[in-house]
Write a structure and sequence with these properties.
Blueprint (H helix, E strand, L loop, with lengths): L1 H10 L4 H28 L3 E6 L9 E9 L7 E16 L2 E17 L2 H5 E7 L8 E2 L3 E12 L6 E7 L10
Antiparallel strand pairs: 1-2, 2-5, 3-4, 3-7, 6-7, 7-8
């Protein structure tokens, strides 16, 4: 269709209806092609891994967080490691199902512009004491996660979430 429309323009008899009809399809095609290139570039981003010293965390507990990143970290301008507590609520609005996410706790654990710091590092985190543990039900959840964000100029940024489980406090009877 595009070649037929361009042939009409070259012949001096453009078909305006065909042009108006093709504009949305051409725009969607260009966006999809751009998306393919974006995801191919993102596939070559460095890959972070995170490990915790303690795997059973309760409100008030502290642990060490180790991170290791494979790949080329020298293109990264800035990175941040955050501890995030987030409440999610899923509900129906008419025939649509909506999910709202609201962070209730956010703390920067580490931040740097040095690529070697991103390659390998360690910091500590403390789950705040008067707070809610992890929780999941059909429509609501309390999610704790460690987020690694990296700014990469002229390249897709890195944003990886690593969910952690915060257990409830033990009662004195148990």
């Amino acid at each position: 269709f595009v070649s037929q429309a361009s042939a009409g323009w070259r012949a001096g008899t453009p078909d305006y209806f065909l042009m108006l009809f093709l504009i949305p399809f051409v725009l969607v095609g260009l966006v999809l092609i751009g998306g393919i290139f974006y995801f191919i570039l993102a596939a070559f981003n460095p890959r972070p891994t995170i490990s915790l010293e303690t795997h059973v965390l309760r409100p008030g507990d502290a642990t060490d967080v180790d991170w290791n990143t494979s790949g080329n970290v020298y293109n990264i301008r800035e990175f941040k490691l955050l501890l995030i507590g987030e409440e999610t609520a899923t509900y129906r609005r008419g025939t649509d199902t909506c999910t709202d996410r609201q962070p209730f706790y956010e703390k920067v654990l580490a931040a740097s512009a040095d690529p070697e710091t991103l390659r390998r590092g360690q910091t500590s985190l403390r789950i705040p004491s008067p707070t809610m543990h992890s929780f999941k039900s059909d429509n609501n959840a309390i999610v704790w996660k460690i987020r690694l964000q990296c700014e990469v100029p002229r390249w897709p940024d890195i944003k990886e979430d690593f969910e952690i489980t915060v257990y409830p406090l033990e009662s004195e009877a148990s």
